[in-house]
Design brief:
alpha+beta, Helicase, Ruva Protein, domain 3, 2 domains, 4-stranded antiparallel sheet, 11 strands, binds zinc ion
């Protein structure tokens, strides 16, 4: 047997140990050795695992190799996975990032109540709900497109802290996500709002008008991964907890609910993003736009 992982983070599996178990969940894959060492890979958008006979030609270049595990006759190769790490089972539950994964919403028997509980009991109440939607320890299956679409469908601000989300909103988020994901399992093209041009409510539609309230759809990169988030500032204001600095002396903070007024107010300098996210111009987004017909991550 041989083990080769050029970018491995964590201890190297001992040669001669036996692989006891391989489990996959969404884009996570775990290989567990009999001494308790676990290899975890997350494929994100780019990674893949291949299985070859020893000596067989690989379908991807060697420089994309992230893990190769060779045993008698077979070699399992992981290409391009951004996350390749090992840890001892013992440590797993102590690491805040490595609890058990949340239910996979694409599975018809997924426990939706458990997903709701995982939102309401989230370990970091200050995390924004838009980031929680991509947290695989809460739910699996919600990719970047669906999180924007689901938050719009529920009418909740992506900038609501998870600790402030009501049980009803948590329930609506989970059930809406499950419904949209399952409805699209068999479609060639992703549709979350039937009848809407392009099939999507907000994703990829920055600068366009919201089909529900007519306000302008916004885009921003948020979170550690700087993934694109789309939302309507008009009908998704509920729960928004972005902290704005105190306006200059002499200015009241007006609360005019009219969409045009909201748009004007959002352009005031002290109402702009203050949470470190990248506000985007339409030009920078255009380069980042995925193929609109591609399946969600
Ligand atoms: Zn709207």
């Amino acid at each position: 047997m041989s083990f080769n992982a050029p970018r491995l983070v964590g201890p190297t599996p001992a040669i001669g140990r036996t692989i006891e178990r391989v489990t996959s969940h969404g884009k996570h894959l775990e290989i567990v050795w009999d001494d308790g060492l676990t290899l975890h890979t997350h494929q994100r958008m780019t990674g893949s695992w291949h299985l070859y006979r020893v000596g067989e030609r690989w379908h991807k270049p060697t420089k994309q190799l992230r893990v190769a595990i060779e045993v008698t006759d077979w070699v399992a190769v992981c290409f391009n996975a951004p996350v390749v790490e090992t840890f001892r089972q013992f440590d797993r539950h102590r690491h805040p990032g490595f609890g058990r994964l949340g239910p996979d919403l694409c599975q018809l028997n997924a426990d939706l109540d458990e997903c709701v509980e995982r939102i309401l009991d989230h370990v970091d109440p200050s995390m924004r709900i838009a980031e929680v939607m991509l947290d695989q320890h809460v739910v699996c299956g919600v990719g970047n497109v669906y999180r924007s679409e689901v938050l719009w469908a529920v009418g909740l601000s992506p900038f609501a802290n998870v600790g402030s989300v009501s049980e009803q909103d948590a329930r609506d988020l989970v059930h809406t996500a499950a419904r949209l994901l399952r409805a699209n399992l068999v479609n060639d093209r992703r549709v979350t709002v039937p009848g809407m041009r392009g099939g999507l409510a907000v994703y990829g539609r920055n600068g366009q008008r919201c089909g529900r309230c007519g306000d302008t759809i916004e885009v921003r990169r948020i979170g550690e991964m700087k993934r694109l988030l789309y939302w309507c500032q008009g009908c998704q204001a509920r729960g928004d907890q972005r902290v704005a600095p105190t306006p200059p002396h002499g200015f009241e903070r007006p609360m005019d609910p009219h969409p045009a007024a909201a748009m004007f107010l959002s352009e005031l300098p002290w109402r702009r993003a203050t949470d470190g996210d990248d506000t985007l111009t339409h030009d920078t987004v255009a380069q980042d736009m995925p193929d609109p017909h591609a399946r969600p991550a």
